[in-house]
Amino acid sequence: VRVEFLDYEAIDDYGWSLDDDDLFRKASHADLDGSAHGRLLVQPDESLLEAAENRGFAWPFSCRGGACANCAVYLVEGELSQPTDHIMPDELAERGFRLSCNGYPVSDELKIVFNVKQLAELDDLIL
Ligand code: FES
User: Fold this and answer.
1) Fewest C-beta in 10 Å: which of 23, 30, 51, 116?
2) 4: which strand partners?
3) Any ligand 1 atom below 6 A from CB of 66
4) What is the CATH number of the domain that holds 105?
């Protein structure tokens, strides 16, 4: 599964928004560091977080078990599984927030924003 990723930090720095239709196009033109915007492949036995780590990226995490939301990502395109045993409230899940530590891609391609834990909406969930 191919994943295009973007660091929320860049969105914040450039004054973009998660809802921008052309978010990833803007990111492509912004000459961002390869750790802030790029692509990676997820193997079938890897969660999204594991795939990022196995390709040398350092994305935020803490519990690795669905209980803290430090590893939260925002889905721009595609779908990531969410186990029933997790901390993400339904209204945030419906808006596209997922946990990368135990989320497995269920679409052929994904576009995600990682490092969204600093968003005010997620602040209460961070342990
Ligand atoms: Fe805690 Fe993913 S690292 S929920």
Assistant:
1) 30
2) 39, 111
3) yes
4) 3.10.20.30
Domain count across the chain: 1
Assess whether the C-beta atom of 68 lies below 6 angstroms from ligand 1.
yes
Whether ipTM exceeds 0.95: yes
Closest of 84, 69, 108, 78 to residue 59, by C-alpha? 69
What is the span of the domain harbouring residue 100? Answer: 2-123
Q: Is the CB of 18 under 6 A from ligand 1?
A: no
Cβ(99) – ligand 1 distance below 6 Å: yes
Nearest to 34 by CA among 2, 56, 18, 11: 56
Helix (H) or strand (E) holding 40: strand 37-41
Tens place of pLDDT for every residue, the chain, 127 residues?
999 999 999 999 999 999 999 999 999 999 999 999 999 999 999 999 999 999 999 999 999 999 999 999 999 999 999 887 788 999 999 999 999 999 999 999 999 999 999 898 888 888 7
Query: Which is the closest atom of ligand 1 to the Cα of 87?
Result: 4
